[in-house]
Design a protein that fits this description.
- Strands 1, 2, 3, 6, 7, 8, 9 and 10 form an 8-stranded antiparallel beta sheet that branches. A two-stranded antiparallel ribbon has the order 4-5.
- Helices cover about 10% and strands about 40% of the residues.
- The chain contains 2 helices and 10 strands, in the order βαβββββαββββ.
- By secondary structure, the protein is mainly beta.
- The protein has one domain (about 15-150): Factor Xa Inhibitor (Irregular).
- It has helices spanning about 25-30, 85-95; strands spanning about 15-20, 35, 40-45, 50-55, 65-70, 75-80, 100-105, 115-125, 135-140, 145-150.
- Strand 8 (about 115-125) and strand 9 form a beta hairpin.
């Protein structure tokens, strides 16, 4: 499906994990990895770069001067139904106990892909009440820039 300037729906979007890391921060290196879909994801939170502001105020002018500081790709929260034995969820649990980052891929409904590395900071299971699905939440701390690839 070709790229367009038309808004897309979130329905059909999937997220994947790879226990291996890419050899470079390129779409080719990410595409060469083996991916496991994280099953039953209900919500993929917002993600992207945010740059801090460095401020100083010269006494004479009293005007706050600003520069861009460090860029943080932030934390990406995932909400999902807990499926015991799901390979993608199990990989996230494994990486939560590891100090290293894993590679992730988001495939949007129009075929666009977003690749990045992230630390799995938490994997929590929620039981809820009698009228609830057993749920889980995952927090990913992005540790690289996001490499976006538009569909051909």
């Amino acid at each position: 499906m070709p790229a367009s300037d038309i808004a897309i729906t979130s329905a059909g979007t999937k997220i994947y994990i790879s226990m291996a890391k890419p050899t470079a921060q390129t779409s080719t290196a990410y595409a060469a990895l083996t991916w496991e879909e994280i099953g039953d994801v209900d919500d993929i939170g917002e993600h992207g770069a945010e740059t801090s502001t460095i401020k100083r105020t010269p006494l004479a002018s009293r005007i706050v001067r600003k520069l861009k500081g460090s860029t943080d790709y932030g934390m990406l929260p995932l909400k999902l139904a807990r499926v015991f034995g799901d390979a993608g969820q199990d990989d996230c649990i494994t990486m939560q106990g590891d100090d290293n980052a894993a590679a992730f891929k988001i495939e949007y409904s129009d075929g666009t892909k977003a690749y990045f590395e992230a630390l799995v900071m938490s994997f929590k299971t929620g039981v809820g009440g009698a009228e609830s699905f057993t749920s889980a939440s995952i927090n990913l701390e992005l540790d690289s820039a996001i490499v976006e690839v538009l569909p051909a």
